[in-house]
Amino acid sequence: MVSGMSEFSDTHLQELRRGTVVLACLRLLRTPGYGYSLLVHLEEHGFATDANTLYPLLRRLEKQGFLTSEWNTEDSRPRKFYVTSAEGNRLADTLSADWLDLTRSIASLTDDPGTPEEN
Predict the structure, then answer these.
(1) CA angle, corner 33, sides to 52 and 97, nearest 5?
(2) What's the distance, Cα to Cα, between the start and end of the chain in Å?
(3) pLDDT at residue 19, rounded to an integer
(4) CB atoms within 10 A of CB 88
(5) pLDDT in tens, 3-60
(6) For residue 54, what are the contacts with CB-CB under 8 A and spacing of at least 6?
(7) Is there a contact between 81 and 32 (Cβ–Cβ < 8 Å)?
(8) Are the C-beta atoms of 68 and 83 separated by less than 8 Å?
(9) Domains of the chain
(10) What DSSP character marks residue 83?
């Protein structure tokens, strides 16, 4: 591998994943969940994210109206539960459809026999 290539690929992979975490959160939070449990579920599904990324994202999505939240103070430790709003569900459906279209488009690039070969 070319020296420094891993650093560049890591950066591009991080950029690619950043947008997919939004969609993953919207889909996972169709069932109410709190921050830490969401971190665990994201990792279980291949979207490793750290808390310093997730919590600002949740606040931003809530401010934009794509999530709603409610504090649960019944347990010994209060937790803020998030759930995808109706607008967030519409966004998740749109993003999912767009993701499938993009996946097909990318696949067509690699399946196209007319694609120039590298030397």
Answers:
(1) 85
(2) 17
(3) 81
(4) 24
(5) 556 877 878 877 888 889 999 999 999 999 999 999 999 999 999 899 999 999 999 9
(6) 21, 25, 35, 38, 39, 42
(7) yes
(8) yes
(9) 16-103 (1.10.10.10)
(10) E
